[in-house]
Specification:
DNA-binding; 15% strand; 434 Repressor (Amino-terminal Domain); alpha/beta; homodimer; elongated; 3 domains; Rossmann fold
Chain lengths: 338, 338
DNA sequence: CTGAAAGCGCTAACAT
DNA sequence: ATGTTAGCGCTTTCAG
C-alpha cells in the first residue's frame, strides 16, 4: 500500500543503496541515475517516513520548547526567538504548553526520553512535582536547558533572569518617585524564582528605610481574570496604595480596568510597573514602565545552550544569569508622588 | 549501549512477546511475571523508543496544530481548546507557528506527510503559496482540517468563521450609533476570508445608504507595531473618522495609544470595535466591543473534525460555518454620535 | 560509482 | 499464559 524506498529502487532498476543516495542528495551517484530515481519516487508518490528515518539515524533534528502558559505573550516571544536561532543549527521546534498541569509538563518531558526530540528547552512550572523526571532527564543525559530554577536543579544548564534584581529596581524606582504605599502582586506559583520579585521589593524598602506591610502583598493565578480580581480586591481594601508592582506585564494589563472602575487613573492616582516588556506594554493606553531583558538574546542563548549540549554532552553545566533593566515609559508618571 | 526491550526480556528470562505484553499493559500475563518484567525494565533503565513504536504501529497519537502567528492570543486560545478536546480522544498536540513564512508553513504540513503526526489542524496563511502541498495532503488522505479558506480548497474539511457577517454586524452597529465616518483596518494577508470583513463593512454601508470612501479603508501587517503605525496614519490623515473597525482585537489594542497621542478619547471621540474577543478585550482600559464566537466550541469542533476524519477516512468532507456575534462592551460608548 | 545485507527498537500474527 | 518470528521503512557498513 504505502510506497517505500524499496519500491522506488526496484521500479527505477537500481539498488536500495543507490536510491537512498539519490534521494538524500549524497555523492557518488551519476546525474542521470539520480534523476531517474527522483523521477520514479515522484511518479510513485513516495514520501519519506520520519520514524524509520529517525529510528535508524538516532536523532530527529527537532527540539521541544515547553512553555508554562499559552496566554502570556512573553513566552511566545521567547519561543519565537529560540525557534529562529535553532533554525540556524538545523533544528525545528515544537512548542508545548503545559498550561498549569504538572502531568502535561511531565508528558512533554517524556518526549526527550523517548527520542521524539533531540533536546528540550523548558520554562518549568513544576520542578518540584516532576523532580524525578527532571533528574532522570539529567541522568540519561538528554540535552535539557532550563529557564529559571537554578536552586532546584544545580547540575543542569540553566538560564536565569534575576527577578530579584528586577523587583529591586522596580521598587526603588517607585520609592524614588516618592511612593510610600506600594502594592505588589506575585504569581501564586511557588517556584523560588517567582518570589524573587518579592525579595527585591522588600530589599528596596529596607534600603530606603521604608516599612513594608504584608497587606500590600498579594498573589494570584496566571490568568488575566484572576489578576484582575486580586488587584481589585487589593486596591479596594488598601486605598492608600499609590503604586503597584505587578508580577508581569500580562497581569499588569488587567490593572487598567480595575483602576478605572475604582475611579483611579494611571499614572496620576496609581503608578504601575510590570515585568517582561511584552509587545502590549508599548501599545496599551498608557505605555507601561516595566523590566526588560532582551528576549531575542534570551532565545538565542537558550538555543545555543541546548545545541552546545547536544554537540558536547560532556561539557560542564552552564548557568547564565540575565539582569533585567528598567524601562521607564509613562505608567508611573514623571513627577512627584500623590 | 541503549537498553532495548530485548535486553529486558533476556534479563527477566521471558520472551520478547511477554515483555511487550507486560510493558504495554496487555492481558495474558501473570501478575508476578508482569511485575518481574516491569522491575527489570526499571532496573535496566529501559525507556521506550517512540520511533520504533510509531514505525510499527503506523500511528503516533499526535496531532499538529499549525498557527499563523504566535503573538496573537486568539490563536493560542483556539489551540488550547483544540488541545483539551483532542486529549479526550487520546491525542497530544504539537503547536507550530508559521510566523508569516510560507516555507515554515510548508515544513509543518510535511509533518503530516512523513507520518510525524496523525492529523493536522491548520489555520492557513499561505493557501496559495502552498497550494500543491495542501493538494497533496488531501490526495494522500492525510487527515487535515482547515480553519477558513473554503473557496480555495473546497474538498477539504473546513471550519469557517463568517467574517463577512462579522464585518456587517460591526459596521451596522456603528452606523446605528450614528457614525458616518467609519474607518476599517484589515490585515494585509490576501486570503479571501480576510477581506470578508471589508465586504461586510461595505454591505452595511450600502444597506443604510451611507457612502463609503476608500481613504477610510487601510490594511496593515499582523504585528502590533504595524497596526499602530497604520492607524496613526489613518487617524491623522482623516480627522473626520469617528469610529474604527479593527481587523482583530490584537491590533485593536494598538489603537489605544494612537488615539491618546492624537488627543482622541475612546469611546468619546473614537468608537472602536475589534474581532475575536480575546482575553485582553475584557480587561483593557475600556473594555472592547467586539465580535465573538465561542472559542471552546471552535476548538472542540476542529478536534472532532480531525478525529472523525482519522476514524472514517471515507467520510465526505465537512464544512461548518460559525457565525460571530456582536459583544457590546464600552469601546463604542452607549449614546449618540459625535 | 553501485549492490547485498545487516540492523535501528519495537509490535503483532501465529504458533505452542 | 508464553514463545517464535517476521517485519515496519529506512540508513549504512562493507564489498564489488
Amino acid at each position: 500500500m504505502t510506497v517505500t524506498i524499496h519500491d522506488v529502487a526496484r521500479e527505477a532498476k537500481v539498488s536500495l543503496r543507490t536510491a537512498t543516495r539519490a534521494i538524500n542528495n549524497e555523492p557518488h551517484v551519476r546525474k542521470p541515475t539520480r534523476h531517474l530515481v527522483l523521477e520514479t519516487a515522484k511518479r510513485l508518490g513516495w514520501r519519506p517516513n520520519s520514524h524509520a528515518r529517525n529510528l535508524v539515524r538516532g536523532k530527529t533534528d527537532r527540539l521541544g520548547i515547553v512553555l508554562p502558559d499559552s496566554r502570556n505573550a512573553v513566552f511566545s516571544e521567547i519561543a519565537s526567538a529560540i525557534d529562529v536561532r535553532a533554525q540556524t543549527y538545523g533544528y525545528n521546534c515544537f512548542v508545548l504548553h503545559s498550561e498549569g498541569s504538572a502531568e502535561r509538563e511531565a508528558n512533554f518531558l517524556n518526549l526527550g526520553l523517548d527520542g521524539s526530540v533531540d533536546g528540550l528547552i523548558v520554562l518549568p512550572n513544576f520542578l518540584e512535582a516532576n523532580r524525578d523526571l527532571y533528574a532522570r532527564l539529567l541522568q540519561e543525559r538528554i540535552p535539557l536547558v532550563l529557564r529559571g530554577g537554578p536552586e532546584a536543579l544545580p547540575e543542569a544548564d540553566i538560564l536565569t533572569v534575576d527577578v530579584e534584581h528586577g523587583g529591586y529596581l522596580a521598587t526603588r524606582h517607585l520609592l524614588n518617585l516618592g511612593h510610600r504605599h506600594i502594592g505588589i502582586l506575585v504569581s501564586e506559583f511557588a517556584l523560588g524564582r517567582l518570589y524573587g520579585r518579592l525579595k527585591g521589593y522588600l530589599r528596596a524598602h529596607e534600603e530606603m528605610g521604608v516599612p513594608t506591610r504584608s497587606e500590600y502583598q498579594i498573589s494570584s493565578g496566571h490568568r488575566l481574570e484572576e489578576g484582575y480580581q486580586a488587584i481589585r480586591r487589593l486596591l479596594t481594601a488598601q486605598p492608600k496604595i499609590s503604586a503597584l508592582f505587578c508580577h508581569n506585564d500580562f497581569l499588569a494589563m488587567s490593572v487598567f480596568r480595575a483602576a478605572r472602575e475604582l475611579g483611579k487613573r494611571i499614572p496620576d492616582d496609581l503608578a504601575l510597573i510590570g515585568f517582561d516588556d511584552i509587545d502590549f506594554a508599548k501599545f496599551c493606553e498608557v505605555p507601561l514602565t516595566t523590566l526588560t531583558h532582551p528576549k531575542e538574546m534570551e532565545g538565542q542563548l537558550l538555543a545555543d545552550m541546548v545545541c552546545q549540549r547536544i554537540e558536547q554532552p560532556d561539557h560542564p553545566p552552564q548557568q547564565i544569569t540575565l539582569r533585567p533593566e528598567l524601562i521607564i515609559r509613562e505608567s508611573c508618571g514623571y513627577g512627584a508622588p500623590p
